[in-house]
Design a protein that fits this description.
- This protein has 320 residues and is α/β, with parallel strands linked by helices.
- It has 11 helices and 14 strands.
- It has an 8-stranded parallel β-barrel, surrounded by 5 helices. It has a 4-stranded antiparallel beta sheet with strand order 2-3-1-4. Strands 5-6 form a two-stranded antiparallel sheet.
- A hairpin with a 2-residue loop joins strand 5 and strand 6.
- Helix 3 runs parallel beside helix 4 and helix 6 packs parallel to helix 7.
- The longest helix has 14 residues.
Length: 320
Amino acid sequence: MVIVLEKNIREDDKQRIRSFLEKNSLRVNEITGDEETIFGAVGHVSIDPREVEVLVGVQRVIPISKPYKMASREYKRDNTVIDIRGVKIGGNRLAVIAGPCAVESREQMMEIAAKISDSGAVMLRGGAYKPRTSPYAFQGLGKEGLRYLREAGDAYGLPVVTEIVSAENIPVMEDYVDVYQIGARNMQNFELLKKVAVLGKPVMLKRGISATIEEWLMAAEYLLAGGTNDVILCERGIRTYEKATRNTLDLSAIPILRSLTHLPIIVDPSHAVGIRDKIPLWLLHRLRPAQMVLLLKSIIVPTRPFPTAHSPCIPSSLKK
């Protein structure tokens, strides 16, 4: 439930309300907006909302109807803006996150970081651990890749985001990562979501290839309920009958999500379109700075046989 507090509520009344809710096994988050302050109370509700409504300092109580509580727009009316080492995700300014699919060498990461920074990107992405369809494909450099990613990010002032594929990697990754990415394959790996949530760091949650919007938001709820306040949703395309592109980018999900959730939204055209020369064209036709953050896969030499060399952007096209 959402408890809207009176504007001039006394601090001791506020504390009494919080204590009452916590004694009834509810987790309480205080959210201060431009117009009002609320308590978001989630958990198994065993009390009548009217018991809360009569407490001194309570203006009104609003039940949350959605199965995802903390992710819902009912829980928080204002859009969430996440600050990642000075980079704002979720505001009105366009932000671009770029980098290679896989970290392959120190030289590669330093060169890409330099070029995408010069092109206006504000965060660096790259995979040190890679879940592949084929067991024979390159699986990533592991800890060595994390070191290269961190060094390149620090050298050019770019926070780093990388995918976590197993909870076993957490002790190795903790000192290197600014944002954990949960990939499409792991969107509903609930045990992994719970383990990452308790770390308290920002998490980028990619939509599963066949996931509904509600399933996606319920996965986000696992993260929020587990302790992470900063969750970013990433639309990366869903699987349809279409074969002309790698995936089908579900842009219709963006306005729907905007009405359902306060969480920031990232759009990943690289994984969706999967055709390098079509990505800049897509950006020209679809880009709306107030709507999205972009996640782009970038490489330096497109002719090199990378595992997914058909989909990345070249940094020069990113600058355009």
